[in-house]
Design goal:
Elements (H helix, E strand, L loop, with lengths): L1 E2 L8 E2 L10 E2 L4 E4 L1 E3 L4 E2 L4 E4 L11 E3 L4 E2 L4 E4 L5 E3 L4 E2 L4 E8 L4 E2 L4 E7 L4 E2 L4 E3 L8 E2 L4 E2 L13 H25 L3
Parallel strand pairs: 1-4, 2-5, 3-6, 4-7, 5-8, 6-9, 7-10, 8-11, 9-12, 10-13, 11-13, 12-14, 13-15, 14-16, 15-17, 16-18, 17-19
Length: 192
């Protein structure tokens, strides 16, 4: 379901001239308002991406999903008081995660199942594993957050292990699998 928000903003979903590179949004997903979805993005079943709150001046920043990224089943992306949310290119937001703005996720990032991110920045080529929380702390490039970790404003980031190359390879494989899903589901749409 694709809808405008109360401010009249309607989502912009990539529909490039190259049919094999257009975004795919599952028919059960809900996309509201000032959302920009770039090429080859996969939006999975029951995902909710909602850009509808405004700041004190009545303004809002968009939610932007970068090219070749995937927003998997049941993910919720929203923002408080019109703050920006950006998901970089070639990034994966796994099942049932919550990304709540203000939030910026870099390129080639993997966010694991059921993770919650709020008021933070996640640097390029980082991984946040399943059931982790990142709240109010910016993470540098190539940073690794183990499963069930809780990072908050006073967390000492030097206590965390270094990023493992195999995690970057895993993240890239998830991105590639979801790009293939975009093509497969778009082909199925053409059968009806």
């Amino acid at each position: 379901m694709i809808r405008k928000n109360p401010s009249g903003d309607f989502p912009i979903i990539d529909q490039t001239a190259y049919v094999d590179q257009t975004a795919y949004v599952d028919q059960t997903a809900i996309i509201y308002g000032k959302v920009i979805i770039h090429a080859n993005v996969f939006i999975g079943p029951y995902a909710v991406i909602r850009a509808d709150e405004v700041d004190a001046q009545g303004e809002m920043e968009p939610i932007i999903i970068g090219a070749n990224s995937n927003i998997q089943d049941g993910v919720v992306i929203h923002s408080k008081a019109g703050a920006a949310v950006t998901i970089g290119e070639n990034s994966s937001i796994a099942h049932r995660s919550i990304i709540h703005g203000p939030c910026k996720i870099g390129h080639h990032v993997f966010i694991g199942f059921n993770s919650v991110l709020f008021n933070c920045r996640v640097g390029n080529r980082s991984a946040v594993r399943h059931n982790a929380v990142v709240d109010g702390q910016d993470l540098p490039d190539n940073f690794y957050v183990p499963a069930i970790s809780h990072i908050h404003p006073t967390t000492n980031l030097s206590d965390f292990p270094p990023m493992d190359v195999s995690l970057n390879e895993f993240s890239e494989s998830v991105v590639n699998a979801n790009i293939e899903l975009v093509q497969g589901y778009k082909a199925l749409q053409n059968e009806f």
